[in-house]
Amino acid sequence: QVQLQESGPGLVKPSQTLSLTCTVSGGSITTNYYYWSWIRQPPGKGLEWMGAISYSGIAFYSPSLKSRTSISRDTSKNHVTLQLTSVTPEDTAVYYCARGRVGSDEHDYWGQGTQGTVSS
Question: b/e per residue, 49-78, with b = 16+ CB within 10 A?
Answer without folding.
Answer: bbbbbbbeeebebeeebeebbbbebeeeeb
